[in-house]
Design goal:
The protein is α+β, with helices and mostly antiparallel strands. 64% of the residues lie in helices and 12% in strands.
């Protein structure tokens, strides 16, 4: 499915940062480093190419001007949406083409069960 999302030259660490920022909102590089279990210097090396490519931007923290909050850019949000839509389209088409109606019903039932397992 990853291949279906379009061009993706992101490392697993970069993808993790983007997903964390999408889910939790803007935060500092230090906070990202703590969340990912690494040193801030290592996180800076992950964040820098994302900024250079226009996927992340930094802005002064309104609560502490010495800090910089990293956030996703509109370009990144659009890219994430398009990537997910491409993967969803591929998955839907593949299920329809390769699974019988009965198998599709079984898959749906299994997904319902899996969803129950991960609910909070």
């Amino acid at each position: 499915m990853r291949e279906q999302g379009g061009d993706n030259d992101l490392t697993p660490s970069q993808a993790s940062v983007l997903l964390r920022l999408e889910q939790q909102g803007p935060t500092t590089v230090s906070s990202l480093a703590r969340a990912e279990g690494m040193r801030p210097q290592s996180m800076s090396a992950i964040v820098a190419p994302l900024q250079e490519s226009g996927l992340l931007r930094g802005a002064p923290d309104p609560g502490d001007g010495r800090q910089t909050l990293m956030s996703l850019t509109p370009k990144c949000l659009k890219w994430l949406q398009q990537s997910r839509a491409a993967r969803q389209d591929w998955l839907t088409t593949t299920i329809i083409q390769k699974l019988s109606v009965h198998e599709q019903e079984k898959l749906h039932a299994a997904l319902d069960l899996l969803s129950r397992l991960v609910e909070d």
